[in-house]
Design brief:
The chain has about 425 residues and is an alpha/beta fold. It has helices at about 5-10, 15-30, 45-60, 65-70, 80-95, 110-120, 200-215, 265-280, 285-295, 300-325, 355-365, 395-415; strands spanning about 35, 100-105, 120, 130-135, 150-155, 160, 165-170, 180-190, 215-220, 245-250, 260-265, 335, 340-345, 365, 370, 390. Helix 5 (about 80-95) runs parallel beside helix 9 (about 285-295) and helix 10 runs parallel beside helix 12 (about 395-415). The radius of gyration is 21 Å and the shape is globular. Bound molecules: pyridoxal-5'-phosphate (PLP).
């Protein structure tokens, strides 16, 4: 096959492809894998029951299913979900958000592909515009999403060591300069992979820096409030017309329905809708049909606060206790768990690379993600990049426990 530049770039090995392939391969080859790698949310019975009830109601209604599957939504996405989301955000946070500020996509991953390429890449004047990630590690899914090469530029964090076995990253504002080639600043909060929740102060400083340069600040709120609220502290997002806030139904328990939500200035929303039309005519309608009633009524906020957050918080506490028990005596630190369902583990001075550790664990049918993929745009060599792994602790308790035991065994072989 004679591929275009786009074809060559988008078919070569990428971290996200390896991650999704690993998931698919493991799922297809039986159930004896310990799946601590991918970003699948947990199966929470109470949440699943709620979606099943909604689906049943759709099926028993005389026309709802047919209305859902029988027509395209507009390129901006399902109107009812957009209205419900706007009204929820107005009520919860008092933001001046209307339906004109919201567009849907086929998942946040798609939202990021659009946003990074709408803003980053070659400008009409021929300049190479970049997306600034002010703090890495940052989400693996961003890494390869630029149509042009080298769309990202990023910075190392400051590291605060906490107690004997925790640490926390902070934005290093002294090293952060928004140069004229920067088209947007982007952060995930809570951050995948580290679980870091940037402080309100960090967020407002970034928002001010972006505002001063007349560029948007993109905040990826895939795990944040008002839903799914996979956070272990109270931290609200911020929004103004200079902020592009992205949300998703995935971590609510619906990764399969592929629905992303972009909240932004009307101009950005129109651009997202234009891309939807070209790439997929319209975003899928199924996620909207499953969730719009619970978003309209605010039930989604209660479900997130009273079921989803406590579920992950207790998983986190349990898994951290296992880490402390199994890795006792080894040189490790865990990023302070503040949200998401990942541990970001740092093995300072690890004698092999985290990629080699990943392969050794894979041999033993344990899937994690090696840390080196989470530093998009960081040009400098930094040993830290090869000393970390991401571990998803949201799966079955016995799998998480067993995976941690095997991890400890492999680490002990290296001492
Ligand atoms: C921080 C972050 N952003 C975006 C995504 C993409 O989510 P989706 O495309 O399922 O909405 C994920 C998925 O894991 C994520 O962790």
């Amino acid at each position: 096959m004679n591929l275009s530049q786009f074809g060559t770039k988008f078919t070569r090995e990428s971290g996200i492809l390896q991650l999704m392939d690993d998931l698919g391969e493991a799922l297809a080859s039986g159930d004896d894998w310990l799946m601590l790698g991918g970003g699948n949310p947990a199966r929470i019975p109470e949440v699943e029951a709620r979606f099943r009830a909604r689906m049943n109601a759709m099926l028993t209604s005389a026309f709802e299913l047919e209305n859902l599957i029988g027509s395209y939504d507009s390129p901006k996405g399902n109107r009812e979900l957009i209205e419900a989301t706007a009204s929820l955000l107005r009520q919860q946070y008092g933001w001046d958000v209307g339906p004109e500020n919201i567009a849907l996509t086929n998942g946040s991953q798609t939202s990021f592909f659009y946003l990074f390429n709408l803003l980053g890449g070659i400008s009409p004047k021929g300049e190479h515009k970049k997306i600034l990630l002010p703090i890495t590690p940052e989400y693996i899914g961003y890494s390869d999403a630029g149509i042009e090469d080298n769309v990202f530029v990023s910075r190392r964090p400051e590291i605060e060591q906490i107690g004997d076995d925790l640490f926390k990253y902070h934005v290093d504002f002294d090293a952060l300069e928004v140069t004229p080639d920067i088209a947007a600043i982007c952060v995930s909060r809570p951050t995948n992979p580290t679980s870091n929740v940037l402080t309100k102060d960090e967020l407002s400083r970034l928002s001010t820096m972006a505002g001063e340069k007349g560029i948007p600040l993109i905040i990826d709120n895939a795990y944040g409030t008002p839903f799914p609220n996979v956070m272990f502290m109270d931290a609200e997002p911020i929004w103004n017309e200079n902020i592009i806030l992205t949300m998703s139904l995935s971590k609510l328990g619906l990764p399969g329905v592929r629905t992303g939500i972009v909240i932004a200035h009307e101009e950005v929303v129109a651009a997202v809708a234009a891309l939807n039309a070209i790439v997929s005519l319209a975003p899928g309608s199924f996620g909207a049909a499953l969730t719009r009633d619970m978003i309209r009524s605010g039930e989604v906020v209660r479900l997130s606060r009273d079921v989803i957050r406590p579920f992950y918080e207790s998983k986190c506490e349990q898994a951290l206790a296992w880490i402390r028990e199994e890795l006792d005596g080894l040189r490790y630190r865990v990023h302070k768990p503040e949200g998401t369902f990942f541990f970001w583990l740092w093995f300072e001075g690890l004698p092999i690379s985290s990629r080699e550790l990943y392969h050794r664990l894979k041999e033993r049918r344990v899937l994690v993600v090696p840390g080196n993929y989470f530093f998009p745009g960081l040009d400098e060599e930094w040993p830290h990049q090869h000393e970390c792994i991401r571990l998803n602790y949201s799966q079955k308790d016995e799998d998480v426990r067993k995976g941690i035991t095997i991890l400890a065994e492999e680490l002990k072989k290296l001492t």
